Structure formats: C-alpha cells, structure tokens
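User: Hi! I'm working on a homework problem where we have to compare a predicted structure to a textbook description. Could you give me the structure for the chain below?
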Amino acid sequence: MTTVPPPTTVLLPLHLTAFVLNPVVCSSEFSKIAPIVQPNYTFLRLQDSLLESDVLDHINLRNVTPAKLNPRITDIGNGNFLEKRFGVYIHWSLPRLYRSGFAATPEAAKTHSDEKLKAGMPSRSADTPPDGTQDYTAPDFRPVPNRWLVVRRLHKNTKMPTELGNTMRSVEAWVVQSDRLHNINDLGPQVVVDLETDVSPFVNPAVLTPEGDKEVVDGQAEVFIGQRTKWEKWDAEKADAENKVDLNVLTSSNPLFADYQPHNSNVFSVVDNFEYEFPVTVTGSDGKTTQEIRKAYLQDATADYYVIGWHSSPDDDPLTTSPPAQAPLHDKRLKDCMLKLKDDSPGAITDWLNTSMGAVRALCHATCYNVEYHAQHAPETVLADEAGKALKTHPVAVGVTPLDALLAYCNAHGSTATTAVSPADSSKDDNTTPNKQVQAAADERFLQAFEAFDGGTRYFYQQSSTDGKPVDAPELKDAFVELNAQQQQLDTAIRETQELRWKLFAEWWNFVAGFAAGDHIDEYKTRLSGWIKDLYELVGEPETMDNGKIFKKDGQTKSILRAAGRLQTLLGEINKKRGIITGKPEADLEKVVNDGSIKTQKGTSPRFYQRKDPTLLFGGGVRSGWEPDFLDPLPVRLDSQLVRTSPEDPATADGEWNDTQLPGALKDIIKDLLNELYHLRPGTTLSTTPPTTTIPPKTTTDTVKTVVPVFPHFHDEAGRDRWNNTQPWMPLFVEWEATYFHVPYEHWEMKEQFRRTDGAKVVQFGFNKDVSSLPDGTVQKRGVSGRNLLLPQASFSLETNIRQIIDNNHPSKLDEIGFGEKDRKELIANIKELQYTSFPLKGLTSHLLTLKEGGMHMKPLVRRRNRAPAVINAALTPFDGSGIHMDEDMVQLMDIETTAIPYGDEVLLDADSGPPLKLVTHGQLIFTKLNIIDKFGQAICVIPPSSRHILHSEEKTANVPTTFPSLGDSYYTGTVGNVDPHTDPKALPNTVLKLPNPSFNPFIQLTPAINQPACVNAHFVKKDGKSWRPCNDWESPIWGWLVINYADYGLQIFTQEGVFYRAVRLGGETGASAGLKWLPFDPPSVEQRKQTEQLDFLIDKLVDQDYLHGFFDMINQSMAQNPGNAPNSYATAMAAIVGKPLALVNTGWSLELSRPQNENWSTTKTDTPDKVLVPLKEGAKIKPEGPPPEQYTFPVKLGDSERAFDGMVGYFEAATEGPSDLDLERLYTYFTPDGTDNIPAPPTAPSTVPAAIVTSLKTSTAGGDRRKPIKPTTYPTLTPYYLPSSTVELAAEHSKQLKIFGMIMDPFKPVHAYTSILPTTSLKLAPWMVEKALGRIHAFFHVGPILLTKDVPKNYDVTRSLTDDFKFENIGRATNVIPEPPVIPPVPVAPPGPAIPPTPVVASAAADPPPPPVEPTPAPTPVPAPTPVPAPAPAPEPVPALAPNPEAPPPFGVAIPVLGQADWNWLQPFNVFPVDGGAELAAASQEVRLEAAPYTVVEGFLRAVRPIVNPDEVGKT
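Assistant: Happy to help. Predicted structure tokens:
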C-alpha cells in the first residue's frame, strides 16, 4: 500500500478530442471540410468605410471538393498539398468554471469584490478605479490556464521510416503558451509560421483604452496569440517574461474562440503532423558532400495523447484565495467553481472538504488513447458522414421550443415516442378529461413561443382588512394613485432612454460606415440632433462652465457632471410619494422598506412580450457537440486519489525528457499524473482495479487514513478517453440563408383551428385565400441570413420541459396512456443521449427590422474590469472636419446599447423586396442554405451548396435546392381551402409558390407577430364622469349580480354589494315582468341606490320576453357546457340553492407597445412601410409619395366556451351615445342557437330544470333576442399605441386607449383574451370582491298566492323590518315542534299595487328571542352544520334546534310542502299605513283535516336558512 502526502492539488478532467485530416477525409460525399475562415480584424478600422457588422465571413463550401480545390489543405496558388497541415488535430474543451462570469447590480457592488475573491477570482479582479467608482455590470471571467503540456506517445506498432531506423523517440512533448502575444512583424516569414495553423488572430483589449488612437485600432489586424515550443527547448523563466495577454474565454470578443479549433491553434489545440527530421548527404556541383537536415512526415501512426494544464501564476488559479478575502471551506470553493469530488467517501476526503482553503492548486488533464493516423485513408467510422446520410432522409424540424420541434420531428417520422411527452403538459385542476388537458397544454405551449420583457414596477396597497379587501384610506388615495402614475412614467422614460442610447450608436455607426456623405449630411445632422436633444431631456445636459464641460477626472476616466434630467426628477417625486404613504421622511425610506412598516408593496407591472424566432432541430444522428454531462458539476479528484503504481512510466523514468522546467509546486503531481495516464491505457489490468493508498497522520493523535484511488471522470464505461477509430463529430454552429416572403396583412384571418398533432383548438392566423395565385408584385421577398451557436443549453431545456410535464401530471394519468414509472425513469436517464441538436433562428426578426445582430463588430466604448464603458478616442476621429458635432459625452451616452447593428449601406436590397422595414411579420420562409459546422471545421450541407441567396420574382415555383422541414403546429402552412390533409390526400399546401410535389413542402409559415415588445393590457374599469379608468386596488368593478331562479322562472338581480335589487320573471301579459325594486327588502342607503343606474338599463331590456328568453338560454348553455369549477366552499353560500351567480363587470383592453415604433435603418432603400403600428409623426416624409400608410389593427377573441377554465358568458360593447354606458342592443356570446344572429331563442336549461319549465322556454317567439355569436367576423379589434413618457397626464391617456366591454362572467374564473400575436391575457376578480357579495346574496323564491287556515300576524313589527343587513340567524326555528308537514318561519311578499309602498317585515315561529342553546333533539331530517363562506367573511352561526318547552307559547308557522333537507324562513310583505292595527299569531295544525273557515290567502317569499344537502351526505365534508 502506497503512502501519499495530504492533498494539495485538485485534478480537473477535460474532454480531449482528436480529428484526423488528410486528402481522403476532404473528399467525402456526405460531409465536407471547411476552409479556414478567421476573423478579419481589418473590418474594425474606422476609416475608408471599412467598418462591417461582422469580422467573420460565412464559410464558402461551394468549391471544397475534390481535395485539390480545398484551401484548407491545398496551396491554391500552385496546387500543391500543404502536408504540414495533415495529421491529428487535438482540442481540449474548457470546463464551465472558466466559462461563467461574475457580474453585479449597483445595489450589490459593496460586497461584490470580496465575493469574487472568495470564489477564486484573481486579486486584480477586485481592482478599484482611482476615483472609487466601480461598475460590475459587465461580467468578469476567470483567467484560463495559460500553460499546457502536450505529450504524444507512439505505440510500438507504429511503422518508422527506413531513414530513421530506431532513432525516433516514442514520446514527444510540447508546451503551449496560450497567452503568448505576437505582432505579425515578430513572427518571421510565412513559410516558417503558418498564420492559419500556428497562431490565432486576436484583438488585444489592453490597448483599446480611451487613449487608443487610430493606429492602435488599425493595428489589431496584425495581432496574434498562441505559441507551441518543443519541451526540450522550453524555458519557463524566459516564457514568463515574454509579451502576454490577460486571457479568458471572451478576451478576444470572439464567441467561437474557445471551441472552434481553427480559431484557437496553439491556444487550446495543436496539430500533430508527425514531422520528423533526418540527415541527408548532398553532393554539390563541385563534387563536395555536405550534411543537410530534412523534414518529412510519418504516413501511418498510432498514438496516445496526454494534455496537462496549469496557471503560471498562482494568483490566477481558481482554487487560490487572494487577500484580503477570507478563505472559504474547500467544499464551498468547489461549489462556487461548479465542481464536485467524484468520490467524497467519509474519511480523509470528508475532512479535507470541511477545512478552509489552503495552498491548493488546480491541475487540468485530458487523455485520448489509441488515435490512428493514416495519410492515405479515412478513419473507419466518420460520424459526420453518418449524420450527413441521416439528414438526407430526416432533415430538420421547426417548432417554438426544442420540445415542440422534437415532437414535430417524431410526428413526421412516425415515432411513438411522442406519447411520452405530448399528453397534457398541464397541471390545471379543472382539466378532468383528456380533451381539456390537451387544450390547456396547447395554451401553455403557446406561451413558450414568446420572450418576456420587463414591464416596470407597480405598487400595491399592502394593508388589508379582515376580509382581504385593501384598506380604503381616503387620506392616501391621491398619493397612491399619483405614485403609480409617476412610476409608470418613469418606467416608460427608462425604456425610452435605452432606445435613444442605441439610436445614437446607430447614427455613429452609419456615419463611420460611410452613409453620411454628400446629400445625406443635412439629413444626418437633423436626425442626430433630434436624438441628442431627446436623450439630454431624459438624462440631463452636461453642465458647462466658460467654454468647456466640467469633468470629474481620475486620471483614466472622465465622469461628466449633469444637470437633473427627467429620469432623476421622476425618481425624486416617486420617493416623496412613498414617503407620504409610509408616513416616514424621504431620508428614512430605505429603513422603512426594510423594517416592513411601509404600506405599499413593490411588485411588477404586466410584462411585454415579443414572439421568438423559430427553433430548428436536427435529428437523425446530429448529436449535440457537447458532452451529455457538460452542464453538471464537474467530477474532480484530489491528488491523493491518483492511481499510483510501480514501475513508473519508462518515458518519465528513463530520461527521454527531463522535468526541470515543470513548475516546482506541481512537478511531482504532474509526474504522478503522467504515470497514471500511461498505466490507464487500454489493455492494462490497472485500468480496472486500482490499488488503495494511505495518508499518514498529521499528529501523534491522528490516525492513518485509507484513500481509495479514483479513475478520471472520462475514463468510464463509455470509453470517452478512447478514440475508438472514430472521427468525432462535434457540431458547434450553423450558418443559414433563407428567403422571406411578406404576404400582405389583408390576406390573413384570425380564426379557430384544430392542431394537426393533438386536435386541440387554438386561435391562430391563416390565409383567407390561395396565396400562390396572388398577382405579381403582391408578395414581397427578402433575403435573410445568420450564424447561430449550438449551445449545450438545448438538451438542458428539453430535459427541464420533460421533467415539468412528468411532475405536472399525476402518475396514474401517465400510467393510463402507457407511460409507466419505468418508462419515465428511462426517459429522464437517457434524455441527454438523444441524437439531436437544436438552436433558435436568432437574427431573423432583426433582418426584418433592418438590423443585424450576433456578429463581432467594433464598438466605440471599451469595457474594462470593474469600470464603466469608456470612449475610445479613435471613435471620434472620423468626425474631424465633417461639420458634424460628435463628442466624448455623446459617445458615452451610448452606454451598453451597442449590440445590434443598423443595415446602413452594408445590405443591398432587391427591387422586389418592398419597403425594408417590416413592423409586423406575416409571411413564409424557405431555406436556401443550411450548413452545420463542427469544432474542427467538418461541415454538413443540409442543402446542396449554391450561389443562390434569394428566390427572385420571376420564379413561380419552389423548384430550388432547399430542405423540407417537419413543422410544428405553429408553423404549419395550412392547405388551400382549409382541407384536412388527413382525410384528403390531394390537399395542397397553401404556399406563396406552387410546389412541384405537394408532398414535399419547404415553406415555414410565420403568422402575424409584432416585431417589438408589446402587451395586451387588461383592466377592470369604472367610469368617472365621462371617462373610464382602471379600478384601484380597493375598488370593486362589479356593478351587479345575476342569479337564475328556476323555481320562480326568473332572474334575480343584485347590486355590487350583494343586496337584492329586483327580479325579472317570465310570464304575465307581456311575457316578462319585473318585480318591485328591493322587494322583499327595505331600500338600502341613498348612496347604494345611486349604483343601480346601469342595472335599470339592463332590466329595461330584460322585460322584453325574447330578450329575456335569449338571456336565459345563454346562461343555461354556459352552465350546461361548463357545469363545475365553483369552489367547494361556495356550497355554503345562500345563493348556492338556486345556482351559481354571475357577475356583471366592466373591463378595458388595449394593445400597448413598450417603446416607440421601429424605424428603417437601411440607407440604400428608404421606402415607408405599407402599414404602420402607430401613425407616422406629423410632417414625416412618405416614400414613394402618397397618402399616409394604414394602421394595423388586430382582432381579439374574448373568452372561450370550450375551455373549462374560462369564465366569460357574454359581453356588451361600450355605448357610443345615449345614457347607458353599454350598448345593450347587442349581446355577444358563444351561447347562441346554431351560431346565428337575431333568431328565436329556445333556451336549453340544465338537466336539473323541471320539464315543464323547459317546455315553456321552447314556446318563445321571435322578437328581441339580441345575441350575436362571437366568431371571426365579429371579433373586436385592438389598435396598437405608444405614449411617450413626456405625455401630459400619462395615466389618463393610457385609460383613453382602453376598449370597454361590459361582461357577464363567472366570478370564480378568469376571462381570457386570445390574439395569436401575443400570449393569452387573463383577467380575474379578486377573492374579496366575490366573497363579500356572496355572503349577502339571499336565495329566496316567490310563493303564492297560497291558501292558509290561519292568518299571518296583523301587527307590523318594526324591529323585524327586513333591511339589507338583517340578521336572519336571530329568527327562531320550529322544525322540532311541527315535524310534518315542514313548518316554515314566515317570510312575506304581497302582490304589487298598494296605495302606500309596502314595507316588508319578518315574522317567525319564535316571537321572542330564542332561549339559550340546549342539547338538540334529533330532527326527523337531520341537517349538517354549514361550512363557512369561502373567504374571510364568516358564515352565520347555525341556530340549534329547540327542545320542546310545554310552558312556552305555541309557535306559529305557514304549512307549505317543501323540501325537508333545508330549514326555511317565510318573508311576508306588509302594507304599512299610519294607523295602528292588531294581529295575533296562529299556529298551523299538523293534522290532516279540513280546517274551519275563514281562510286567508297570502303571497310571499321562501328563504333557505342553510344550503340544501342530500341526507346521505350529512356529516361528510
């Protein structure tokens, strides 16, 4: 057993890949080898119009075969092969800890430096600028290892050239200096240094300082990094003194730098061309002989490769803690670095994890065994060829997300795997049937098609009463309203500032790129001065003194002092308002927020959304270019866990190469690691059974600890450290080109459609005609292109989505569809192994906005560690002598908004492209180029390479090289005439070009979508005077309640507070009649009576029998179609006896843009868009001249009858004239007979309604039914708008944009708005609004006239006057005294018509207050105690049954046959005259006999004391 010292080094495994390059590899039929295209930093120059949006051109794959034409391995000048480039290319992939940056918001800046040091960042990462102002918004990345030892060990079976004999060493080693900096003049002649394979082009950020002049910027085209030196010539001390760069993964600003081997030669990769030297005797013309050293290359070889990397400076090591930070525990540091111990078994390893970081170093290592090189043939397995073959038959899929695209791919190729992931990915409780689950899943998946943007801040009133309603604090109302109004203004101003910063950059770019010349100068000046003026108004103008600006100088940066702009003013006003609301001075606001005493709660406003670009997925063996576990914490080992053995590796023991140049602190560990890697080669017993080691005790009391050696992470069963005679395929990025066809908006229609895959009904746009038959010139065409990285997050996103689906569905549901527990576990375990890769087609929408993004380009500001962006002096040079003022302050204002690039004159547009700016996407897309490139430059052309970039107008059919993607439902083109392709095989896809073969459709449908963030605002509203506005937190939008009373064959109407107002009944002379107002209750307060005006307008319509019949039928249909979904607690509400109430509310809807309308940034074509989102500014030029363009309007579908979770029953539009707020002549609803207008309405009652009532309803005659079906032709429309922050009374102006609808809705469900262009928006009543009213709504029935043998009391008891807040629980009960027939405590109603209005009073069987409760006597029909009303309002206490009391006066009652499962009150109206009268109580007999005359006829109301409950359910919850 070997004894080892305590651990001092953590071993980080890297994945090493080896790629063989030779002429045969370059001649494959199914894949290609890309020529080397490196960044051309000449395009960073700021003069001569050289500036371009991307310094990296697309790779041209048209002429790369045969191999003699490929510049990757051929000198095109002379046609000779570049043998120096043949061989094995090895590349090591950096782990995540070097790819993750540290950034912080200004609020977290105080502790950020210390946190970075604790996480292992170098000491310079905590540098503070001289002026003390720190800016951590830009991420700071860890330095990468800058020293790499690369060892090649030849196998003994390698055939040596005869000229070498046995003199060639088996081991060759090199040292790679990743951070070595070169200027082209220092590299020597190109015949010695290959600029494409020996070094890597680089931008040195250290010289791009504010002081950087034109020459410094221009010189970046001549800068390179990277150097490889043979081990025996390596001098570590000399190397440390050479020019170098502070290197991390993003130092060069090239996103491909770390992973694309042609861009990181001798930085993170090397080429082993098996070069060897041998002496040759040469005889000269004079007959003399000389010895020459010549070079040649092995033609066949088998080798193992080892790579070991470290930081030359311990301060750069991520496991070293720089002072003054306190070292964390080892366990904490590993987690911060996204590392974990592969084996953390208890013992020595656990002790190490729980101790503080000491002098610990990181050592990276990687291995690839058994790499075979043959100059004359390709590897046995070429994965790129296999993927290329697969893509011929299984090309690509398009969806809104990777999961959606994968489902489309599986559906298109008949896979049954979709049943595992396509069932209802929804957890909604009300989706109890498969169809409803699928419907909800479709809605949720639609949301994933959009990217969310911050909507700003909104304050909510935090304090609330016991019923959940926000406290109505009159003294704070105005301040609270103003607070939110000013916050809305501030949020808008912030978005405007970001927009103006970018516009300022865009103007700078267009000038430097060559636009502002000649006739364009004046136009440019006008635009630039306008942006500057608007921006200064927001952020404040620079303060000036004498002739210059005041600068706060720190020697390196200049902070410009500014006057207060509107942003600062608004923020100050907001803080003052918050101070008023909290009752604390403004200075104490921070404390108030923290101690919880503030009365406002800071929340978020609704977000803005913009549709994402489509997601493309490659299947058929195109696996991800990243290891499946790349995103997991990296399993590492301690040096004590190395596999140690004896004898040592002969190469390190016999002196083939010396170790004197190894870093002292790591020398022994590197030697042990090389020894381990040698002995773990395939075929050795040690590679499967490592021996154990021990760590000696530190003290006399300590014990010897055993350590079990651990294999490196990639030395696994999958053999990831072996080459396996397989050429790797690691897709890294995709380059694409396509033609976009813009189909005019008038040829689109929003309608409900069934999705092809699962039958869900969705609201979506589609064509309203055959678009291939549109006249020439109708459809506009545009070429678009882009480059997209293939990132590891795609597989992670898919795994997350699938986990959510499984978690959101009950296991029993999944079992029912055959997706059992075993299947679920296998799917999760193997999801990372799926052979697919995906990426978003980012950049497509930018092209339509005349922008380019994603490229590497020059920026006028440079970011330095911990500092704000600083202006590069050279960025101002082009303006010298131009007559245009551009100073440092103006460039500073651009800040970080320098990512997207304007078209300018870089992109030339065809004549048939139409106006360049497409404010709304609506068209189709067809790919013309789709190339997948891997990390070594292997490429698969999904579409055969062609010079074609855009389909031109003369082409009438899509008979061009392209691909035929599998389409997700959102991108399906539909068919001509909307024919179902499943039932009619001849159905033709509805495409802009006719298809030669309809079975192969290359088009992707891009339905209408606004190309900037927008949102549908949804508010409950109320009217102030003549203006509508959103309700405040403490205001209820309900203006009435409706309850159908089937027993009365009527409609009961209640006020917003739940106070009964009036009933409308079918029957009578006119077919419908309205009862007296407020009867059987006393009229409420005058203030409450003022709230019934709109109810009166509605009742005036309801007394028309046909209107009422239609109203009844609408409600009945809605309840029959969606019968459930009320909360269980609602069963205890008094209204539950007659049915679920419906709320009458007013709502407002609008379509808001988050920022000003986009502008055309092309300088070669300036046509005005055909349609606009908002009207053009006054005085704007129209090109070509003509009338102003039309404005877009978008239909909106409110509610949905087939979605059980939607609560809308019907709606009225706002009235344009007359006293009523709503146009009650048109009732829009889904519940109409046969979906037609103005026809007789034979209402359909639920099955529980008596047959006689149903028969009566069907006898209705035509007349006043005003229902209009909601369908595409009747959808209301919303017009986009934008209000700048400078708008006077901004909140009021937003309110004016609302489109008002009066709605009839289920109070327990939200109402949804479907637009197809944005995510579904919902609006739901707050619980307190509903619960308070439900606690007051009384369920009662009209009864009579009815014949009684005893009269009701004649005396009017004022104490029992039935006011709206009468406590019914104070009435006595007599059900225990008169068991049969049921006795109902009296509740009166008299027929209308008395001279003096009747005042109702309650009479009861118990004339006196009830005695104290006693143990109840069991009633013949037991009734359970009611449960509380849904939310905080308490339910009335039940009145217990009374025991018989022989001394008490006999109770009286009205003997009526009623349902025995409930207790009842009788409500009796009285005509109260100004004279006294007497009355006696008479008890109703319970015996069956004919009573003596006289008889009394009464008419009144029955009220349920408690809900009706089935006797079988008594005692159940």
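For your comparison, note the following. Residues 298 and 769 are 67 Å apart (CA to CA). The first helix runs from residue 109 to 118. Good luck with the assignment!
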